[in-house]
Amino acid sequence: MNTELLVIMVVEDDPLIQTIVEESLAEGGFHPEVASSGEGALTLLQNEESKYLALITDVNLSGALTGWDVARRARELNPHIPVVYMTGAAADDWPSLGVPQSMLLQKPFAPAQVVTAISQLLNQVPPTHE
User: Fold this and answer.
1) DSSP state, residue 86
2) Are 64 and 96 in contact (CB under 8 A)?
3) Strand pairing of 103-106 and 52-58?
4) Which residues have CB under 8 Å from 63's CB, separation 6+?
5) In whole angstroms, what is the distance from residue 111 CA to residue 21 CA?
6) Is 94 left (phi over 0), alpha (psi -120 to 50) or beta?
7) What is the pTM of this model?
8) How far is CA 13 from its chain centroid?
9) Is the predicted pLDDT of residue 1 greater than 50, yes or no?
10) Which terminal Cβ of the chain has fewer Cβ within 10 Å, N or C?
């Protein structure tokens, strides 16, 4: 299996949560690539948007950009990219600020929930490769 096809962008500024999400995704057969800021994530996404199978982002990030901003830009680059938001305090904003067909995980969440959310969204994505 080519793991390059299973690269997931993870945007999280908390090192502990980064590690939990990275380990969960790796155990689920994915290859996580972590950015610790919205700005860093956008740089990676804009340079290699087709590389990423999905986006998992914290909502409240250090820096000027929020997870809402990162997800909107990711969808401009790839309209079908699955998006999972993680938040401890911003869940009420998801209906108005989240991108369509996204999921939200309320912190604290079980690590397995990350893989389940990504898997569910990936099963809904129209195929892009022939």
Assistant:
1) E
2) no
3) unpaired
4) 13, 37, 38, 39
5) 7
6) alpha
7) 0.91
8) 13
9) no
10) C
pLDDT tens-digit readout, 26-80: 999 999 999 999 999 999 999 987 899 999 999 999 889 999 999 999 999 999 9
| Whether the Cβ atoms of residue 75 and residue 50 lie closer than 8 Å to each other | no
Residue with the two structure tokens 């830009």: 73
Q: Find, among 99, 86, 68, the residue nearest to 22 by Cα.
A: 86
Distance, C-alpha 125 to centroid of its chain:
14
Distance of CA 107 to the CA centre of its chain: 15
Say how many C-beta atoms besides its own lie within 10 A of residue 64's C-beta: 9
Residues near 95 by beta carbon (within 8 Å), at least 6 away in sequence: none
Q: Position 17: which residue type?
A: I
| 98 pLDDT higher than 60 | yes
Omega of the bond prior to 127 within 30 degrees of 0, cis? no
What amino acid occupies position 1?
A: M
Question: Among 43, 45, 38, 117, which Cα is nearest to 76's?
Answer: 45
User: CB-hemisphere CA count at 13 Å for 62?
Assistant: 7
